[in-house]
Every structure is written in structure tokens, then in C-alpha cells.
Amino acid sequence: MNDIFELKGKYDEIIFTGVKNTFYLKKINRNMITLISRDTNQSYNINFREMGYLSPDQAIKELNKIIYKSESTEGATVQDLVDSYELEDKLEAHSTVKIAWAVDTYFTGHFLEPFISKIDNYFLEPNSNEDITIYGYNFCSHTEVEVSGQIVNTIEYVNPQTLIVNITVDDKIGNFDVKVINNKLFYLLVSSIEVGIRSLETVTWKNSSSNILLEDGKITRNAGYGWNEGAISSKAISYSNGYMEFTPIFNESANNRAMIGLSYVNTTYSYSDIQYALYLSNRNLYIYNSGSNLKSLGTWEDGDVFKIELKDDKILYKKNNIYIFHIDIREIFFPLFVDCTIYDKGYYFNDVKLFGKLVSI
Q: What are the structural domains of the chain?
């Protein structure tokens, strides 16, 4: 059976047969072997020189030394797999060179360069132990993760696009590189986590219009009507998860119409400027997104506390800290500040607070 490794220059005939997919050799250049999946037609580049092999012949011949399938066959040789899958007759009957290779994902493992596209929960508190979720490509159960200057405790393989990594961070503040590795292969553009301090602060205000009365944590309209009076917070959430919260106050002697939420743009006092808003119209409650009505949330009562929270790629809406709705966000823009507009004279929001990594704006 050793002759199955005799390549004889016929690279285009080499087929890699795995448990979940089948691949054939598309091309070879100075440093790379390119395989293409027969199931998905997706190409995979393998840098055999980064793996320490001097030639593609040597790399292909050595594949049998790092074969993975499951606990029952981990570390098996090509001969073992040929025997177990009864491929011997097929190998002898065809001129095509076949290497039986079992993998636990779609040809990832030691041979494909992993790539990070996004990290959830990338802002961590000092001296903490937390999970981060890494999204990307070409992960497997053998993928390693390194975080510069920090301790990686566990790596949970979820699927070829997802890893959950538990990290212990120390008291150092700053950005720390995150690198995923398959054997010797890693993506040159690394991602990072940030370690810093998040705080909960009572909102102070800025950029108010003429008929707005401001106090720490409180904003009131004292004259006129219309979507033309408001203010924004003097601090904002910068590149971290966080939230704003407030307590609405019902004015029995007048109408109660106002909007408040999180924004990254402020050009007017209109509600259309508030990207993620709650609209209180008397006792009724609605979710607005950049001026558009997304959903009615029923009614509210005196004493209710509302929260608009950024958590990874979602905006969560909560009443009395209980989830009521969320919006999926493709891309988050920072900084995120509190933005408020009040329609009716005499209406006000109370106990407005902001939590996160806060910066002055």
C-alpha cells in the first residue's frame, strides 16, 4: 500500500477523501497547495512551507501523520483508515492516487489558515474571568487561541465558524491581540480585545435647545410644543457594551409625548436623529429607529424603569430589567450617547443614567 503515496507528477489526480467532504488538488505554486471541495466548490489554500515542508510532495506524503476523525480514530494512519473504510480494492483498481483522510469538520484542522471576522464581548474588566466568542472561518477542535499578555483557560469548539474562549485578564489596561492558530498557520491580521473600566454615571447634558431645563439625570421642557426641543448627554459609550436607563414621569395635567434613546448622530432636535429610541405617548410605549416606528410595546406605569442596552451585535430593550424586544445590528457605530427630544411643555425624564466605557464628547 505504500505506492498510494507515489505521486509521479500527476497532482491533478490526487483526491483527498474525508468523512464529511471530498477534495481534489486544484493547483500548486511555490508555497501553496490549493484544494477544492467537490461538495461546495470552495477553494482552500494550504501554505505547506509555513507548515515546515520543503515541497508539496513532502507535505502530501506527510498528511497521514496528522489525521483526525473522532476519539476512536484520532492519530490513525492512512493504512488504518484504508483498512477501516475498505478502500484497498478501490485504490488498486484506479490509477487516481487517493489518500483517506478523516476530519471532524469540513477540511479544517491543521491545514487551513484560520480567520477572525468578529469577537463578541471584546471589552473586559480588569482582573476578571470571562468568555469571549470568536467568529470566523476554518476553526476546528484542534484550533489554538492566544491572547497577548493574558491567560487562555479553555477553548470550546462550536462549529467551523465559532469558538467560545474563556480568558483570565490581569490588571493591565489596554488592547491585547487575539490570534487563532491551526498548527503553524495563523492569519496575519490579528484581532484584539480591550481591557478597561466601565462605569455607571448619572447623565449630565449638553447641546440643549432654548426651552429645555437641565439637571443632572433630569431633563424638562418648560415652554412650547413640537419635536424641536432636546439635548444630548455630555458623555458617551466608547467601543464597549453598555446601556442607558431612565424613569419616565407622567404629567396628569398635560399630554406626555417624548423620545429618548441612544444615538451616534446629532444634527437636529427631531426624534428622527435618535437611532435607538423609546417613544412615550401618554401611557403608550413604542420602539423607534431613526424616526421609524418599529413596534408597539403596550403601556407603562409610574415607577417603571426602562433600559436600552448595546450587547455585542444587538440593541436590547428592557422594562424593569426584563427583556421586551431587540434589534439585530450589522454594524455598531461609536460613540453612543443619550439623545432626547420632548414634544410637550412640562414633560420630563428623571434618573437618566449611562453605563459603559464612558468618554466625554
A: 2-107 (no CATH), 112-195 (2.60.40.10), 199-360 (2.60.120.920)
Q: For residue 309, what pLDDT band results from cuts at 50, 70 and 90?
A: very high
Contacts of 249 (CB under 8 A, 6+ apart): 302, 347, 348, 349, 350
Calpha distance 225→43 (Å, rounded): 62
Q: pTM of the prediction?
A: 0.61
Grid cell digits, residue 140: 476546528
pLDDT, tens digit, 9 for 90 and up, residues 320-344: 999 999 999 988 899 999 999 999 9
pLDDT of 218:
95
Q: Which long-range contacts (CB under 8 A, 24 or more apart) does 331-334 make?
A: 333/264, 334/236, 334/237, 334/238, 334/239, 334/264
Give the HSE-up count for residue 25: Cα atoms under 13 Å, Cβ half-sphere.
22
For residue 127, give the 3-state DSSP assignment: coil
Which run of H or of E encompasses 132? strand 129-137
Three-state SS at 142: coil
3-state secondary structure of 204: coil
Q: Which long-range contacts (CB under 8 A, 24 or more apart) does 50-57 make?
A: 50/184, 50/185, 51/110, 51/111, 51/183, 51/184, 51/185, 52/184, 56/11, 56/28, 57/7
**Closest by Cα among 228, 227, 226 to 210:** 228
Q: Compute the distance between CA of residue 201 and CA of residue 220 in angstroms, rounded to an integer.
A: 19
Pairwise CA distance, residues 283 & 213, whole Å: 23
Gap between the Cα atoms of 248 and 6, Å rounded: 77
CA 202, distance to chain mean position in Å, is 29
Hey, how many other C-beta atoms are within 10 angstroms of the C-beta on 31? 12
User: What are 161's three cell numbers?
Assistant: 465558524
Q: CA-to-CA distance for 311 and 305, rounded, in angstroms? A: 18
Measure the CA–CA gap between 1 and 167, rounded to whole angstroms. Answer: 46
